[in-house]
Amino acid sequence: MARPLEADPERVHQGIQAIAGLGPMAVNIAVLVWFWGQWRPLIAVMSVAVVLTLANVVFLERLARRLSRSLVETLRMLLNVAGISVSGHFTEWSPLIWVFVPYNMLWFYGLDRWVRPRVAVYLVLMNSIALADGAPPELALAFSLLGLFGYLLTERRASLLRGALDKVLEQQAGLERAHQEMRQIHARAMEQEKLSSLGMMAAGVAHEINNPMSFVASNVHQVLKDLKAHPGLTEPLREHVEEVLPATLEGIQRVNAIVADLRRFSRGDPEAFVEYELNAEVRLALRIAHSQLRHCQVESELGEVGRMVGRPRQMAQVLVNLLVNAGQATAESGEVRISTRREGDWVQIEVRDTGTGMPPEVQRYLFQPFFTTKPPGMGTGLGLAVVHGIVTSHGGRIEVASEPGKGTCFTLHLPCVPVPPAAGR
Ligand code: ADP
Questions:
Q1: From the CB of 362, is ligand 1 less than 6 Å away?
Q2: Tens-digit pLDDT profile for residues 363-419
Q3: What is the domain extent for residue 73?
Q4: Number of structural domains, the chain?
Q5: Which of 98, 171, 204, 259 has the most CB atoms around its CB within 10 Å?
Q6: Are 257 and 378 contained in the same domain?
Q7: Ligand 1 mean position to 312 CA, how many Å?
Q8: Are residues 122 and 204 in the same domain?
């Protein structure tokens, strides 16, 4: 957005002061030469010159520090009218004195907002006094016209220049916006690259763990089955059957879940894009995350979102991850709320909790793989990285609003039908 271009009256005034002072000096020298020997008019004009110079340069400038610039400029205008009238009277309205009229008007522009009314008052006053004092009307008309058009020209030129400057500023703002967007795209590309190299590593690790884990799981199952089938177990063996081996299987399931997360994170999941019912996935996610949400009040508000295109299993995974995080952050009496609603060709999914919230330093690293604030065994730091990967592969985006002590709200924006490049990913 271009800044409005307003000339600062003080700077305008300072800027023209030097030239403004030269004009009267030149005219006064001309008067001095022309009227040399006619002492009455000469003394009158020179006295007026001294008084006006002192008033303009010293008195009015001091006054400007206390009064508004408009008021000071109006006083200056009245003072100049008085000065020119005295000089005009004593020189019988010589054209040399009339020069002051258009000259004064030349530098009216840009001092404040009351210029046009002041121009009008100046011309009316000046001409009334001059004509009443017997000045030739054609001189009054000629110099007034000169003054008026000099002023209008200055005003028009300034407004054209201002228009051109406004355009330049607008273009500059556009460039700044484009630059900002480029920086964001660059940052996103860097993040994407980081995620994809981490993804490749994660896929390798997942693959390496997956194979041994499958035979560890099947062996433990087999041992448990065999031992259960054996009658008359000794006390230590019974303890193994009832506690140690089930706990081991639970551990194995957890490792498998982490490996599954890693594979999804690395986008090794080959699920195809299909039509699906988003609200059905929300209900499924609520059932899966139930054990993590038992302690708080869960609300769901599912709007008419219709059918969407995407990977439903992945979407359920996204929602489970968000709901589990919300549940873990929320205390006993807190609330977790999930809602869906359609907005044109997009769907908004909101997962809101009244939990711990997050300080800015946590929010900064939220989607980085392996970033967690949870104690070992509780978090892997992959949940939100998976969410991010899945949502972006569906052409969507995520917004997070969080306040420590108040809660967090994740909002997913998903296109109902992802554009082809996302569908191909
Ligand atoms: P994990 O849950 O395994 O720690 P995530 O990637 O899912 O990994 O989350 C990363 C971190 O983000 C969490 O450790 C937690 O600090 C923070 N976080 C995520 N969701 C919430 C939430 N709803 N409320 C508060 N903190 C959250």
A1: yes
A2: 999 998 888 998 877 778 889 988 998 999 899 999 999 999 999 999 999 999 987
A3: 4-135
A4: 3
A5: 98
A6: no
A7: 23
A8: no
Of the chain, the percentage scoring pLDDT greater than 70 comes to 90
Report the 3 state secondary structure along the chain.
CCCCCCCCHHHHHHHHHHHHHHHHHHHHHHHHHHCCCCHHHHHHHHHHHHHHHHHHHHHHHHHHHHCCHHHHHHHHHHHHHHHHHHHHHHCCCCHHHHCHHHHHHHCCCCCCCCHHHHHHHHHHHHHHHHHHCCCCHHHHHHHHHHHHHHHHHHHHHHHHHHHHHHHHHHHHHHHHHHHHHHHHHHHHHHHHHHHHHHHHHHHHHHHHHHHHHHHHHHHHHHHHHHHHHCCCCCHHHHHHHHHHHHHHHHHHHHHHHHHHHHHHHCCCCCCCCEEEEHHHHHHHHHHHCHHHHCCCEEEEEECCCCEEEECHHHHHHHHHHHHHHHHHHCCCCCEEEEEEEEECCEEEEEEEECCCCCCHHHHHHCCCCCCCCCCCCCCCCCHHHHHHHHHHHCCCEEEEEEECCCEEEEEEEEECCCCHHHHHC
Answer whether 158's CB lies under 8 Å from 110's CB.
yes
Question: What is the position in ligand 1's atom list of the atom closest to the CA of 378?
Answer: 3
Ligand 1 near 371 CB (within 6 A): yes
Judge if the beta carbon of residue 368 lies within 6 A of ligand 1. Answer: no
Domain check: are 312 and 343 in the same one? yes
Q: Tens digit of pLDDT for each residue in 249-266?
A: 888 887 887 777 667 656
Same domain, 86 and 201: no
Q: Whose CA is nearest to atom 21 of ligand 1?
A: 325
Nearest-angstrom CA–CA distance, 105 and 110? 11
Q: How far apart are CA 9 and CA 111, in angstroms?
A: 5
* Atom in ligand 1 nearest the alpha carbon of residue 321: 7
Co-location of 16 and 108 in the same domain: yes
Instruction: Look at residue 144 and tell me if it is in a domain.
Output: no
